[in-house]
């Protein structure tokens, strides 16, 4: 497709009103825009609780943060503020709200559209559209938007700019992030304890990360009770977390935004997957994916990422656990053994030692 025509030094808005991991996965599109228009002013419109994942992003000039739950009056006030303020506005989603802000903000407007009546209505207000194709990885969706704009792809994630913090370990260390956002993505507490003890036996300090929420920290209190780990849950911002991950000998985590961040930071990353389809949401390694993830596999490796599953015939179901709700258990994760996880961890440590001899190992 021909490259979209923009004036000199254009103003571009990228709209990503999703969760943390989703926002991080939009950064290849933002990098593609920066390469195509190096003199542009590029802003991102995101929810306030996801803005930190874009901290220090060199491809952005600004981040506009809006509350996740906004009244109609507040939305209209923001729309009035954005009205035709950009030469190009790109929604990264087909939803009504992000598409509405793209239509309002941009003199040129681009968005994905669904193959139904509402999508046809949206097309009337958009200059270029992207047909939604099922079974496509989220990053590939972003790169397909670059194709629609007629610009070259930049297939790499851009993590927050790393920042130091007090308490960085002096010797080699592993990072474990045990708490996903939802119960149905949780692995077993006994599994995490076994892995932490195995890592200690390999001479690594174990650093346990997590968020500041009371419920999450209570869950981690139970997971790490009596286990020798250094806990930093609730203590780090996204930039400091990026700094921690960049120097880690290995990272282990479930399907969560921190696991995507670890992969983007170049850490040898072991990702524990259950109901989620890796073909859609598998972590994106440094340098991109030359071969997409398969739907199942005991241990799959792509670049600096090892993806671990215990596959049942129904895996990956793409459902919210076996009980079809956020608070459900997932039998495929409950059945995953610490021995299988440590096979991937040991592979990651071996490769890391060969590729990064100057790293902390």
List keywords for this structure.
2 domains, 361 residues, globular, 34% helix, 13 strands, Rossmann fold, alpha/beta, single chain, seven-stranded mixed beta sheet, six-stranded parallel beta sheet
Tell me what you see in this structure:
This protein has 361 residues and is an alpha/beta fold. It folds into two domains: 11-149, 3-Layer(aba) Sandwich (Rossmann fold), CATH 3.40.50.2000; 173-355, Rossmann fold (3-Layer(aba) Sandwich), CATH 3.40.50. It contains 13 helices and 13 strands. A seven-stranded mixed beta sheet has the order 9-8-7-10-11-13-12, with helices on both faces. A six-stranded parallel beta sheet has the order 3-2-1-4-5-6, with helices on both faces. α4 links the parallel β4 and β5. α7 packs parallel to α13 (338-355). The longest helix is centred in the C-terminal third of the chain and has 18 residues, at 338-355. The radius of gyration is 21 Å and the shape is globular. The mean pLDDT is 95.
Report a brief summary of the structure:
The chain is an alpha/beta fold and 361 residues long. It is built from 13 helices and 13 strands.
CATH architecture assignment name of the largest domain: 3-Layer(aba) Sandwich
Mean pLDDT over all positions: 95
List the uncertain runs: none
Dominant shape: globular
Q: Radius of gyration from the CA trace? A: 21 Å
The total of beta strands comes to 13
Total count of helical runs of at least 4 residues: 13
The class by helix and strand makeup works out as alpha/beta
The figure for the number of domains is 2
Strand content: 15-25%
**By CATH's scheme, which homologous superfamily of the largest domain applies?**
Glycogen Phosphorylase B
Indicate the CATH class of the largest domain: Alpha Beta
DSSP helix fraction: 25-40%
Largest sheet: 7 strands, mixed
Kindly report the CATH topology of the largest domain: Rossmann fold
Distance between the termini: 47 Å
